Amino acid sequence: MRTEVLLRQTRRHFPRFNVDEVKILPIEKGGSDRKFYRVRCSSEQSLILVKYNLEREENRHYVAIAQFLEIHNIHAPRIYYHDTEEGLIWLEDLGERDLFGYRDEPWLVRRAFYESALDEVRKLHQLPEAVCVEMHQHLPAEFNAALYAWEQNYFFENCLGRCFEIEKTEIDNVAALPALHDIAERLAQLPRVLVHRDFQSQNILLRNGQAYLIDFQGMRPGLAHYDLASLLFDPYVDLTDPERDELLEHYCGQRPDPEFLQTLRLCAMQRLMQALGAYGFLGLVKDHKHFLQHIPKAVSSLREVVGKIDGLELFENFLAKLG
Q1: Is 150 helix (H, G, I), strand (E, B) or coil?
Q2: Burial 151-174 (b: 16+ CB within 10 A, else e)
Q3: Would you call 31 helix, strand, or coil by DSSP?
Q4: Helix intervals (H) in the chain
Q5: Is-contact 265 235, C-beta < 8 A?
Q6: In the chain, pLDDT over 90 holds for what percent of residues?
Q7: In this predicted model, what pLDDT tens digit does every residue of 26-66 receive, in sequence order?
Q8: 182-201: average pLDDT
Q9: Which residues pair with 79 in a beta bridge?
Q10: pTM of the predicted model, to two decimals?
């Protein structure tokens, strides 16, 4: 959609803005099929404008989820106007600094930001089931055995197949490991809560030291451990084991028990496989080449996690060969 059209639409829904002062600039954002723009209304006022694909069902639910988060005092951008016919959303501009942008700061600085992010997502995880039921019509399919299996296959196809060009027979040998099937089934049997689904450093904005969640359109019933794994094993950022331990203790309010940590490892495996599949798909199919640079770090993290899970020795050895 051309900038002039976006300007006209903005003027239509916000008639008090001085059209001569309004400027619309595109924002480059990840691998999303949505288009983001910063609408500068004056030197002191701006909005974010999102143009989404009407054919993708989850895009239609973004506004309902944002309003749900606001009702329950979970920090997220406030919605100003939603044009359902054009697929346009005007929302609060929270600035440009995300958690990823602080990755090189000392841990004492970053820890406070991470703790703020964990405080917000914990509010989501702790919502009672009765409250969550009302959102089910706006959410994608819940995490179940089929979805966990899909994440695994997404990795095998798009990371090992496309990026590393591993022979299909060799991939099939690893993919057929009974332990992988058992992990999907085991995780699917655990009680679910609402999860962000893509809770990583680039989807957490910081304003006045407080964390705000963005890109939550994939929110669905799942395991809190999955969100924790997304943040603590984020391929975009290096966290040490002691730093992870500090953050886990903050989230749990105490040192996590062995069962919690084992479930976290299983979710970390799933999340890293999903991320690696996405990097391969976005980098090679969608031609967003910058995603490919994160593959070595994510493979290394996946190997480390897999090495602590029984029954996956063949998988660990296979990952070691990837370098």
Answers
A1: helix
A2: bbebbbbbbbbbbeebeeeebeeb
A3: coil
A4: 3-13, 57-60, 62-71, 107-125, 129-133, 145-155, 168-175, 178-188, 224-232, 241-252, 258-280, 295-306, 313-321
A5: no
A6: 77
A7: 987 666 778 999 998 877 788 999 998 877 777 778 999 99
A8: 97
A9: 91
A10: 0.94
